[in-house]
Amino acid sequence: MILRRLLFVIAMLAAGAGAALAQTPEQRGQQIAARADAVATGFGDLQVSGEMTLRTPTGATSSRRFAMKTLELGGGRETRSLLVFDWPGDIRGTALLTHAFDNRQDSQWLYLPSVGRVKKITGGGRSGSFVGSEFAYEDMVEQDVASFSHLWLRDEPCPNGAGRCHLLQRTPRYSSGYAQQLVWIDTAALRYQAVAYFNRRGQRSKTLTMSGYRQYGGRYWRPARMTMVNHLTGKSTILEWSGYRFNTGLRPGDFTREAMAR
């Protein structure tokens, strides 16, 4: 009986290995991305505080603080987020509203309290700098699986020293300032560890690194720090996150253009 069970386990492992070998790089890349998305979604809603630090090539820095809230709709097929700056005074009240979708282009609006109006971010504006940082407007959108095609390249050490990673090449399906991206997802918990961005000229223009992951609710991993380095200008921006709170009772009405002005 013991021998029979052992042979059964060996047969199942061999079948699983054979199935993995039978996958094309495209199928494997899509599967890994889908699994990473599945472990990160399903939280319902969350609120978090953030601090943004901008650094020039000479080392000069400036900081900004904000609050951000996110709501999942349709079982995670759509997300809405609202980021509002509260310090310093010259940027206080500036807000970015994002409606992200699985199967179509996302929508974004920027509220500028100095002029009291809401501006929609469209076309080439999505690749522009978000409030002077190294993050583009499109970088502030949930990077859902359906917005990209994925290709598995290989497994290798994570570039930030966080163990071993799957290296995927992903290509935007919709309008984007990036021609291509490389993403490193750790094999241990399927957390995004780094993203390399390539512009339309094929240059590696920016690199985003995530660190300080913590698990919330026994399931959801979130980073404490995200660092975006611009290789073309030498500038960088750090986003530091704190005070994650889940299932706070947010509603769709909290994510409208009218809510931005409030």
Automatic annotation (TrEMBL):
Stored CDD domains: LolA_like
Signal peptide, first to last residue: 1-22
InterPro entries given in the database record: TP_0789-like (IPR033399)
Any Pfam family: LolA_like
Keywords of the record: Lipoprotein, Signal
Location of the Uncharacterized protein TP-0789 domain: 78-262
Top-level taxon of origin: Bacteria
The protein's name in its UniProt record: Outer membrane lipoprotein-sorting protein
Natural source organism: Rhodovulum adriaticum
Lineage per the UniProt record: Bacteria, Pseudomonadati, Pseudomonadota, Alphaproteobacteria, Rhodobacterales
